[in-house]
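Sorry to interrupt, but I need a hand with the structure work. Go ahead and set the record down below:
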Amino acid sequence: MAFRKICVVILLSCFFTVQSASILALFSSLSFPDHLVFRGYISLLVQRGHSIVLMTPYPGQFTPQEMERIIELNVAPDSVPYYEEYRKLMTNTDDYYPRLQSMNDFALKLAIAQLKSKTMSSLFMNPNAKFDLVITEADIPLLYAVAEKYKTPHVSITAGSGKVHQYESKGCPIHPILYPDVNALNYRNLTRVQKIFEYYRSFQTRNEYYYNFIPKCEVAAKKLFGLNRPLQEVEYDIDILLIANNPVLMGNRPTVPAISYVDRLHIRPGFQLHQELQTILDSSKGAIYFSLGTLQEPEHLSTHVLQSLSDAFRELPFTVLWKIGNDTMINKSPNIITSAWFPQQEILGHILNLKHL
């Protein structure tokens, strides 16, 4: 009887085989927070046994166990010359349309430099390179052409809440007031002037994408990959669009099965605060974490502005964790703790943390 059961198990096991996929992932952005999202997605694929060939300007972000299934194509040397230009673009205060056009032109210029690097050129010229799936950064249409080159299924991911053209390509209804996209400047309870501005902003966004950005990307795709059909059709053929956001936070909007919301990809559980920070937060009535992000350095603000912030924090009954590298130009109060870097995820996860500014 036991022998018969063993034979049945062996027979059934012959019908269930697991095959890993060979995946090419292309991420161009110089925004490091975006790559935290991409890293989380790639890590999940690796955990499921897939093999990844990854183009990234931020290599070395995976564990040794994950690296056993990841081949990183490092385009950092080709990306570094563009970082200062990127930082200025992201922190300038130009009018919306000129700034949007400049950012799109920069993204295309950066992607071309990365795709023409020696690392990527070696891959594209290899006739034996074959993939089962191509994953691209959704905000860079030029990368879509790589999926067309390898004739594979295509998954695209955006670290934001989705742009107008991304929703349109999947057949989702768009509306600048009812369903704001990632470029919206005003939300909810809009005045008449704000509504008019949002309609105009939406028109400018679509006009910039369809009549400037994607035509330029198509020209580059034809030169780099010999693309023989409109790039917009390639965008329409994207099988799944992953949006790294939570629909609860975005508000109600119509969606389709080809769009999937995948929030919290950047969160890695299991990390704990350093003992010093843990002690400080445990002994506080509450805490405020203040950061201007990864691009805007607080030291570039005027001394008057920095001191005004410090004076405002002085009046609060809470501990303030201020992400700033150089605090010599301000007169700190005892409730302000400064550092060039804080473990943001662990701080925001502390039970006493009240606000993140």
